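Field log, afternoon session.

UNIT: design team B
ACTIVITY: writing a sequence onto a fixed backbone
BACKBONE:
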């Protein structure tokens, strides 16, 4: 089982030898490909062989490329996720509005439940009560936009009444980086299951390549919110990014068992597809973060 998160931060050459990724710099280091779950290339000066890229794709390793500021900018996405992609894509295109609305309602409800529990844990009982009221008012497919109203109450409780997600500050930089990591992990599982990330169940922005992944990641955002709030970053650089990256290997409960976040995301994403294809929302296995 792949489990290692490898970060390449210095200029080097990466190539393939006998099922090992070879890192050639001042020293030479070898990493067994089967152990790698995520590979993050932080330095734009890193060079890689196509042989290695092909091997990483075959092993279904999530490869994330960063820009000159070490922020995620692109990822290696397999062209074909599984043996029956065509069937899965036909299924995805045929998903009815009722089935999509059913799943989206459950996702929004789970997200608001997490938000309420977290702000109550922090002592913001009034905000938690308001979030609980939004949860009770939730309609099919969130037609009344309780998710949007909940987000404002939630972030103001976490970071103050003057906070907005559009500000350029340390908190938003950390949140955006963490959300980017979660999105990449969800993208991987969507592709591996044979579906298109572009066609969502709620998000439908024609300029968003990851509409479906943005839908599925909503209840998982809480793990980043909790980490950023409790870390109280005074700066956001390489060390802070390393700390956020470690969340992917933290363990959480899903379906009554403990798994790393990466493995839990795999179980959760697959369960959502089972739920929408079977028309049964009870099949969704949500990750427990407390």
């Amino acid at each position: 089982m792949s489990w290692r998160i490898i970060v390449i931060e210095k200029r080097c050459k990466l190539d393939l030898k006998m099922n090992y990724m070879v890192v050639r710099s001042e020293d030479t280091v070898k990493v067994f490909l089967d152990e790698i779950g995520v590979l993050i290339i932080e330095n734009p000066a890193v060079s890689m062989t196509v042989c290695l890229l092909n091997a990483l794709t075959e092993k279904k390793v999530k490869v994330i490329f960063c820009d000159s500021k070490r922020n995620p900018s692109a990822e290696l996405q397999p062209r074909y996720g599984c043996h029956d992609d065509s069937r899965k894509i036909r299924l995805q295109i045929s998903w009815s509005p009722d089935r999509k609305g059913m799943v989206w309602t459950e996702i929004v409800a789970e997200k608001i439940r997490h938000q309420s529990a977290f702000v109550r844990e922090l002592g913001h009982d009034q905000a938690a009560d308001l979030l609980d009221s939004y949860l009770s008012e939730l309609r099919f497919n969130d037609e009344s936009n309780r998710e949007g109203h909940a987000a404002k109450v939630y972030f103001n409780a976490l970071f103050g009444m003057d906070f907005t997600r559009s500000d350029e500050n340390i908190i938003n930089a950390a949140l955006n980086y963490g959300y980017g990591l979660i999105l990449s992990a969800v993208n991987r599982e969507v592709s591996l299951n044979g579906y298109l990330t572009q066609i969502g169940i709620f998000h439908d922005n024609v300029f968003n390549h990851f509409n479906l992944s943005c839908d599925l990641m909503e209840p998982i955002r809480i793990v980043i919110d909790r980490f950023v709030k409790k870390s109280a970053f005074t700066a956001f650089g390489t060390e802070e990014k390393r700390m956020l990256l470690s969340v992917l290997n933290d363990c959480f409960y899903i379906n009554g068992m403990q798994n790393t976040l990466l493995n839990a995301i795999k179980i959760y994403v697959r369960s959502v597809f089972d739920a929408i294809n079977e028309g049964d929302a009870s099949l969704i296995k949500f990750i427990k973060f407390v």
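LOG NOTE: The CA atoms of residues 96 and 276 lie 9 Å apart.
NEXT ACTIVITY: expression trials, pending approval
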